[in-house]
Amino acid sequence: MRVPAFFEDVPGIAVQDPLAALLGAAEHGRIEYSYADAVKLAGHSCPSVASAWLLTVKALAYLYPDELPQRGNIRVELREPLDASTAGVMASVAALITGAAGEGGFKGIAGLHGRRNLLAFGAPIAATMRFTRLDTQCAVSATYHPERVPMPPDLKPLLAAATAPDADEAAGGAFGHCWQGWVRTILIDHRDDAELIELTD
């Protein structure tokens, strides 16, 4: 799988999953995720996938400043309803990293390690997403401000050219290059921009 080179420059995240440890799926339950993993899950790389990645990674760093985040021990709530345009995609990325799941999630073993009903949509929150540790009930609200990295001005004309009936490979390539340049700006150039990802208690 060949991906844009900047994917490798996006810092990954390691978590500790007690269920993975119990089942022998990962030594000591340590699982490492990269942005490419989120792209594989979503099937594409876009500002929504990128923002969900940053929101989740930064929220978990806040909740677990001195230890690995405990996958399966985190509740995730989204302000948008499930049928909103990007809510499902963003939730999928957060769920990948945190283990949080909806009604169809894993119910647990011997009353432990359940992930069901840890992912909710349409939550009464002002933030984009809220993350809560189940063990301490410590929570953090995370808000994405897309206006900080607006769409490149030439993106719409490139999209029109790439989707035209007579579009050729060059037109598609030009659009894709511009699109991923937008994603790169979010993930690399603005990765530590506190005005792009806002965290509040």
Fold and architecture overview:
There is one protein chain. The protein has 201 residues and is an alpha+beta fold. The chain has one domain: Tubulin/FtsZ, C-terminal domain (60s Ribosomal Protein L30, Chain: A, 2-Layer Sandwich). Helices cover 35% and strands 15% of the residues. It contains 6 helices and 7 strands, in the order E-H-E-H-H-E-H-E-E-E-H-H-E. The strands form 2 sheets. A 5-stranded mixed sheet has the order 4-3-5-6-7, covered by helices on one side. Strands 1-2 form a two-stranded antiparallel sheet. Strand 3 (74-78), helix 4 and strand 4 form a beta-alpha-beta unit. Helix 3 packs parallel to helix 4, helix 3 (47-63) packs parallel to helix 6 and helix 5 runs antiparallel to helix 6 (169-189). The longest helix is centred in the C-terminal third of the chain and has 21 residues, at 169-189. The radius of gyration is 18 Å and the shape is globular. 32% of the residues are buried. The mean pLDDT is 97.
